[in-house]
Amino acid sequence: MYFLTGWPRRLLCPLRSAEEPFHIQPSSQRFYFALLSDTQLSIWFSRPSVLIVSYIDSAKAIAQFGFYQRAEWKPDDSMIAVATAKGYILLFSVLGGGDDKYLYEPVYPKGSPRVKVTPGLKEEQCAPALSLEIKKPVDLEAPITSLQSLHDELLVCTADGYLHVLHWDGLGGNGRKAICLTTIPFSLDLQSARGGPSLDLEGVHIRCMEYCETLDGFAVVLSDGRLGFITPLSSSITADQLQGVWAADVSDGTCLAVNNKYRLMAFGCASGSVLVYMIDTATGSMQLSHKLELTPKHYPDIYNKTGPVKLICWSPDYSVAMVTWECGGLSLWSVFGAQLICTLGEDFAYRSDGTKKDPLKISSMSWGAEGYHLWVLHTKRVKIKQEEAQQEEETVSPPPSSQQAGILQFHFIKSALTVNPCTSNQEQVLLHGEDRLYLTCGDPAQAHNSSETQQHSRLHLHDGSPPHHHHHPDSSLSQGLSTLLGHKHWHVVQIHSTYLESNWPIRFAAINTAGQCMAVAGRRGFAHYSLFTRKWKLFGNITQEQNMTVTGGLAWWNDFVVVACYNFIDQQEELRLYQRSSNLDNAFASVTKLQSDTLLLNVFRDMVILFRADCSICLYSIERRSDGPKPTVSVELLQEVSMSRYIPHPALVVSVTLTSVRTETGITLKAPQQACMAESIMLNLAGQLIMLQRDRSGPQVREKETPANSKKLLPFCPPVVLAQCVENVWTTCRSDRKKRHLLEALWLSCGEAGMKVWMPLFPRDHRKPHSFLSRRIMLPFYINIYPLAVLFEDALVLGATNETVLYDGMQGSSEPLEALFPFCTVERTSQIYLHHILRQLLVRNLGEQALMLAQSCASLPYFPHVMELMVHVVLEEEATSREPIPDPLLPTVAKFITEFPLFLQTIVHCARKTEYALWNYLFAAVGNPKDLFEECLMAQDLDTAASYLIILQNMEVPAVSRQHATLLFNTALEQSKWDLCRHMIRFLKAIGSGETETPPPTPTTQEPSSTGGFEFFRNRSISLSQSADSVTVGKFSLQKTFSMPTGPSSKGRDGECAENMYIDMMLWRHARRLLEQVRLRDLGCFSAQLGFELIGWLCRERNRVARVDDYVLALKRLHKDFLWPFPVISMGNVSSPLKNGRCRPVLSTRLLKSQSADSLLHMDTAPPPPGPSSHTWMDGLSQRSKDMDAGSSANSNRHSPQTHDAFLSLLTNKVEEYSIGSATDLTESSSVVDGDWTMVDENSSTLSLSQAELEHISMELANKGPHKSQVQLRYLLHVFMEAGCLEWCVVIGLILREANVIKQVIGFLDSPEVPAETTQSIRSGLLSIDTWASTDCLGYKPFLSLIQPHLQQLMMASMASEQVQPEAFQPSACQSSKLGAAEGGPGGSASARPEDSRCAAAPLGLLALPSLEPAGGFLRAAPTEDHRSPDQTEEFGEEEGTYDCTLS
């Protein structure tokens, strides 16, 4: 509502005086302030805040009249009455200077457009020159206690119990009458006035008094502390026409202030609390509405030490009250008791080192114009020395006898809702200070204007703010939740200085629903701003601006500003609409003349609702017309509703709103289109929310019959009071079938009572509603912030809060203001309210409605948090209640939450955030944690299950937690959730070591040893040849011993050992499973992540599970797991490569088999250009090797785990697979001719690499997998070698094609420690691999031929047991032999049965090779349909074995 900002400003009086001012009194418009000290009367101007004139009385006059005490202005600001200590009233005339007399002149830069100022404007911009002239004093012969101005009369209360009524004009003459207080009858209410108990007022006088216009009476505090209200029964104030009522049970009143807008009287008490009374309209008695008091919860140190209330001050718009106490401090409250600011706590009361500050003691205070400033006079007698020291710093050192008087000015920014409560302000938070706007919405412009940013910082500095304070406007495009909630900063828009200069103060502000356009109205005219353009639009013609003043407020309708204003030239009230995009000029305005003054304005869809000074409501329709060059609007009066019967005074209406809300009476649910129509008028009458609903009780048929007459609107039913103590109302005209509960509700802010929502109840599934079920329900709920906007669909309330920053490092001999006061900023806040509403519905047994509401909001990102909050709040309340609860809500809430999938997670999160003592109560309602844990496991929600373990560990015996932890540990191992596994190991160890009920400590985990896992390998790279050569035969006799972690003491060692063994058993079991399933990669991850002693375990399992049963399967599985390409064979020495223009695909068919069916990998293809010499096929490879990386990256987006395979000639890929992009696409009809081969040969023959180098490069490129896989495989090889698992070493040696490894392993086989089965297994395994390679993967044949000598050595060793043909390990093709002959039987079968081929698509199609591009681009072999004739197929068959191949 109202928020402090920055530091207070100190205004120093230019006149030096030993007196300090003690009383400040504002004029009616608050443009002037009268300050009193003992002998001086000064008048200050509000903007600029300067002293205009000061009257200093002579010593002789002071001796006669006494010191000045209090002052009062005449309503037209032409006179000031001053009361003195000896009972005199001194009257001063305030004389304005001539037209050209003013104290300060604006100096404009040359060429400024505002130099030619219109007549009469200057004195408004500058402080006018005034003078004071004293008139004849009036002697009332008794000390004066109170002054009150009333129309043409001045009421003066004196200490002798009299009330004097003086005329302002004839003060010295016969216009006096005195009324004795004892002659006024006082009773508890007006009904018992004639015969009921009456007060004995002998010796009692009125201590203070204030007139309330809307109650037409005087609130008084009597000298004995009683509170009363005096009503004049007729228009004139005479003794026999006054009647008083008094408040029972109060006798410690000290001061008072009345609120005209809400008909409230606030009385300060000696106890420190403020009692706010209202007058009961029926009986006329004083009824307590609410109290303003500090609570021990928020202010435990000070709440009962504030002393009596010193002053209460309502803001000019009556929406907040400022309170101060005798002990000092300021406190700001909303009209119905919500506390906004208090300076008795937090940074206001304490320094950063924790020492307490002296609170600011206030002698008088007053609000400035429109409530942007609070002028405060503080008592400084304690701090005179500090002040003098400070003033010496600030100014030239003064004479020691005098000091400068100081006024503190506190700056406020306020919500636009306080004075302009229109619908367009309801979903955006819009605050306005005296020269800037703060808004929460996003900014469409991405680039920030640097000059604007500089302007921001400069203005803040000018206000005394620190340089860091200026807020950067946010620059997000969306208007979604992230924009409204994303950060705490505001978008600050500086109001145009030219407009402010002549039209300060800003009275109204409005923002459009999209949050992109703002409009402000000051004393005259208005201006608007667009975030799209970052520009203000002002009236081009200043006369037009000065000839209108906005009276009823501003609102946005689409692209138009709707203004209710008064036209000074025609002296006519008008409703105007100005288009945003046009120039701001009356020529482009749509003007409608109005009959009476407009007090309030609002917009609903295409209707404008006006509340007028004659207490009537007018509805207008707005229609957009686009017939001209510029769009215009036509405004038409629809309906007038007189409310004078229900509204005692037009100033009491706080807001008026059209809504689509209705009570459903007389309406069937079959008319959903009516949901968007203007169904009712909501009127906030002094805090009472009144609803006028359209009367649909008559026949409804006419609408269909007379569509032409549809403009005739239905009448309204008599008003109904919906709620009391209402400060703000929010409603929306949008509709959404899914969120009807939220969008068709009415939201109310009720001060200290929190918020209320008037929510519709819907029958489920279009069933007939129960007759006893109300159609709507009012639900109260509390929130921690002051609500400023409601986001209906998002179930959020937006607000703002004051934050403080201490700058008390500036302390020295004197404390400047910056050290006395923290720097105040305003931050955006938001709060979820959904859990409150759901809970209220469940309390009222409306679970079905709560479920519908919750399901409609289940997609909100904070919905899980809502559920947690609901459980948490109910649990805290019920479990900590001292009395037994007859009907507990927690079981209902628990049952409600089970309807949602996040039930398990909600309960455990809530439990973990609640103290242990409440867990039993919680789980008694929601179910046994063991069952909930098992549900989590079944749902595979392991993280939530882990949270339940903590609860089980605290609530169950250790055996139960261990059993559940084991279950979870095994599941986590299966799913490779390593983080969770590590936590589980720590958890199990903690259970074992402690065997206690306390939560587990976090033991330090052992660092994995160098052989423990992949972690070791992340930092070091092992050269395989070194590691393999360094392994000696003797290594295998070493059994790995498990080292237990050393415990803190030997006492718990046995339990710890047992626990470690238990964990190790589970880890061993998992490792065994991984090895049995040939999941070496998973085994490596498992070992590395959990620090598993892999080598030691493999040593023990060497002859059990660490054996290889099927070598071919193991090899294939490794290829797949490590994304390792199958090797391919290179081809050279092709004799007669062409026959009938076609190339035979037999060899390609074979080579294709090297791609296993489950391989994820692709093969890159390149045409080998055969020539007369055996090395020509490699000549093109150097260029190719350079392009290798580029090629792989181009291909990797389709197959993410991409590896580089090989260069094959004449290859067809799987038909359904993606084939690699090439320089030229092949077509069925293209053919290979001799010229193509020749050209390739010519291009490639320029390379001059030796054959050995080329072969090395080609094999490296063709047969390597990803680098990471290579590192992992080498590491595993190292581990298996250390552990002596020779069979696995052979398999890894084969896939890495490391001849040294095979040689070493075969060398180890001679050792007596190696069992015979191992030797036998390796021999038969290598045989099976050779057989498989001959048929399915020829790429392995060259490597097998390379290690042939070692294999023959192995064969010789076992000749005795089995007859083996040594030529089985001969290379399938070598430089001297023909392929077909070497392949023998198995090779032939592959070509005879092409359907066996794993990768070839059914009978192979024709292949053609285009010429190789010079740049070495990739080629794609296009899979083609089979167009071969039977005889061609036969030819291919006859020619089998005619290719020569080169092997490395």
| Helix percentage range | 25-40%
From the alpha carbons, calculate the radius of gyration and give it in angstroms.
Answer: 47 Å
Largest sheet: 7 strands, antiparallel
| Helical run tally | 40
Keywords:
1448 residues, 56 strands, 5-stranded antiparallel β-sheet, elongated, alpha+beta
Please sum up the structure shown.
This protein has about 1450 residues and is α+β, with helices and mostly antiparallel strands.
Task: Tell me about this structure.
The protein is α+β, with helices and mostly antiparallel strands and 1448 residues long. It is built from 40 helices and 56 strands. The strands form 13 sheets. Strands 1, 28, 29, 30, 31, 32 and 33 form a seven-stranded antiparallel beta sheet that branches. Strands 6, 7, 8, 9 and 10 form a five-stranded antiparallel beta sheet that branches. A hairpin with a 4-residue loop joins strand 54 and strand 55. Helix 26 crosses helix 33. It is elongated, with a radius of gyration of 47 Å. The two termini are 86 Å apart. The C terminus is likely disordered.
Q: Mind sketching the topology for me?
A:
Blueprint: E1 2-17, E2 23-26, E3 32-36, E4 40-45, E5 51-56, H1 59-65, E6 68-73, E7 79-84, E8 88-96, H2 122-125, E9 130-134, E10 138-139, E11 144-150, E12 153-158, E13 162-167, E14 177-180, E15 186-187, E16 206-212, E17 217-222, E18 227-232, E19 242-246, E20 253-259, E21 264-269, E22 274-279, E23 286-292, E24 309-314, E25 320-325, E26 328-334, E27 339-342, H3 346-349, E28 362-367, E29 373-378, H4 384-394, E30 403-415, E31 430-432, E32 436-439, H5 450-462, H6 481-485, E33 491-494, H7 497-503, E34 508-511, E35 517-521, E36 527-530, E37 535-537, H8 542-546, E38 548-557, E39 560-567, E40 572-579, E41 589-593, E42 598-604, E43 607-612, E44 616-625, E45 632-642, E46 653-659, E47 680-685, E48 688-693, H9 702-705, E49 720-723, E50 728-730, H10 740-743, E51 746-749, E52 755-760, E53 776-781, E54 786-791, E55 796-805, H11 817-820, E56 823-832, H12 834-843, H13 847-856, H14 863-879, H15 890-897, H16 903-912, H17 919-926, H18 929-938, H19 942-955, H20 958-974, H21 978-994, H22 1014-1019, H23 1024-1030, H24 1053-1076, ...
Parallel strand pairs: 15-19
Antiparallel strand pairs: 1-30, 2-3, 3-4, 4-5, 6-7, 7-8, 8-9, 8-10, 11-12, 12-13, 13-14, 16-17, 17-18, 18-19, 20-21, 21-22, 22-23, 24-25, 25-26, 26-27, 28-29, 29-30, 30-31, 31-32, 32-33, 34-35, 35-36, 36-37, 38-39, 39-40, 40-41, 42-43, 43-44, 44-45, 46-47, 47-48, 48-49, 50-51, 51-52, 52-53, ...
Helix pairs in contact: 12-13, 12-14, 14-15, 14-16, 16-19, 18-19, 19-20, 20-21, 21-24, 26-33, 27-34, 33-34, 34-35, 36-39
